[in-house]
Design a protein that fits this description.
2 copies of one chain form a homodimer.
Chain A (H helix, E strand, L loop, with lengths): L4 H13 L12 H8 L3 H13 L3 E4 L3 E4 L5 E7 L2 H7 L4 E10 L4 H7 L7 E10 L2 E11 L16 H8 L4 E10 L2 H7 L6 E10 L4 E9 L4 E5 L1
Antiparallel strand pairs in A: 1-2, 4-5, 5-6, 6-9, 7-8, 8-9
């Protein structure tokens, strides 16, 4: 077979999954595979690299390439804008600004972002709806030095989420999903009973030179995070 | 600068993040970048491909490469064995087989796996502990035709999770995280109050030729899913 690197990857994966190459076994080297498949060694390298990144193979510089004994599989999680996520579910997305407040953030927020306790921050609370139903409540603190101009953003017209992606994109950060139960005030906003289970996403993001924002997104009951592997 | 593709990727990413190449703008073509960086065109191609896979760039065959206007960021989620996940937290992992039962699975289970309602399945319930504290309750249904030999696996010695990874590895599947509240029986096993918030992972996995297993993993309160972006 000749083909692109994806064809080589698929054939190698087939051999792993059918156990022609069982877990822990050494596979032929790149030159041998290039010869067998009738492709360039670089093509084989690209295919094996992709399978190593997905956890199927373990590559060691001198010891060659082995099939992972207990492959650690990985899923990819796309991080859409909140609006995009609602629209991807086939709903009309709407945001309502519940309030903004400048001032110091809770210690847990500044600590997560590595900021001083008196860093200049703005708190923003937003209610997101999918069609007419509550989708999530977004509690956010924005670090002004990491997002210059945020204090004059027209947050009634553009959501803080969208303003920040356009004007202060993050370079890295942390996501954390946890289960909580709805406090009465949150339950009222989400239109659910107090004590109902709520999937909460906490996200801390950092720009190339400064922390940008801390967000807590409390989803209405029934929301789930789905991933393909 | 000369270097490997990772060096080129990092430099291109720096130019995107510092807005030297702003969102939506077209970047120089591969030949131009190869000339500037003093590397092979294939090296530039590998770097741009990686950035496109991470959502920073949009590549079109004739239109060239642009910086994504609103980059859709992606995170990678490693899928460890339950035992590995507990041990990675610095705890001793222990599993206790609560029971097994052959027989038909609930309709939601067979439907999720695309099986007939009378498919030959085995139900297994396992309690996982981290040190002495309950970590999660694992409710699993295994499709015997996708995992031959499972009915004679010594599940008191090896967990169903580990047996399946070794003997019936999956090729693809679906993960779903949701918040629930603990029913009394689950609360008793997890050592929490009924109604406490529980992060539940549902996972359906498929082998190269048949569905393998449906799992519901109900984590003790306080557990969260953390990801880097």
């Amino acid at each position: 077979m000749a083909g692109g690197w994806q064809d080589i990857r698929d054939e190698v994966l087939r051999r792993i999954q059918t156990r022609r190459w069982p877990p822990g076994s050494q596979i032929p080297n790149e030159a041998e595979l290039a010869g067998e498949f009738g492709v360039a060694r670089a093509t084989v390298n690209r295919a094996l690299q992709a399978l190593a990144e997905d956890g199927w193979l373990e590559r060691r510089r001198r010891a060659g390439t082995r099939v992972a004994a207990a492959p650690q599989r990985r899923a990819r999680l796309a991080i859409p804008l909140i609006r995009q996520e609602i629209e991807a579910g086939g709903h009309a997305a709407a945001h309502r600004l519940l309030g903004t407040a400048p001032g110091p953030a809770p210690a847990a927020v500044t600590a997560a972002l590595g900021l001083a306790a008196d860093a200049e921050m703005i708190q923003v609370r937003t209610l997101w709806r999918a069609d007419e139903r509550p989708f999530a409540v977004e509690d956010r603190w924005v670090n002004l030095s990491g997002a210059p101009g945020f204090d004059s953003a027209p947050l009634d017209r553009i959501s803080a989420n969208e303003w920040l992606v356009r004007h202060a994109p993050f370079s890295h950060g942390t996501l954390e999903y946890a289960a909580e139960t709805a406090e009465p005030e949150l339950a009222d906003l989400l239109g659910c009973a107090p004590g109902a289970p709520v999937l909460v996403l906490e996200r801390h993001t950092f720009g190339p030179s400064a922390p940008v924002t801390f967000m807590r997104l409390s989803h209405a009951p029934g929301h789930s995070l789905k991933l393909e592997i």
